[in-house]
Amino acid sequence: MAKNNTNEMFANFPDVVDVSGLRTMLGGIGEQKAYELVRKGTIKAIKIGKLYRIPKINVIAFLTQNTV
User: What is the pLDDT of residues 5-55, one digit of tens each?
Assistant: First the structure.
């Protein structure tokens, strides 16, 4: 997946998303899997209190680095 394509795909998303937004960006993955990805640091996130905030650029990096 080319970086330009992912930027276009996610143009309507804000620069920082929550776990719900992450799930949508990754095609509707489960809530547990989304939390696992951020807790393990597979997708870099910032924890503010009890909430995770994930920069869109980190989701794009995850997708472009993990292509088959």
Answer: 777 889 999 999 999 999 999 999 999 999 999 999 999 999 999 999 999
SS (H, E, C) the chain: CCHHHHHHHCCCCCCEECHHHHHHHCCCCCHHHHHHHHHCCCCCCEEECCEEEEEHHHHHHHHHHCCC
The encoded tokens of residue 46 equal: 């910032």
> What does the alpha-carbon distance between residue 33 and residue 3 come to, in Å, rounded to a whole number?
23
Any idea where the domains of the chain sit in the sequence? 3-65
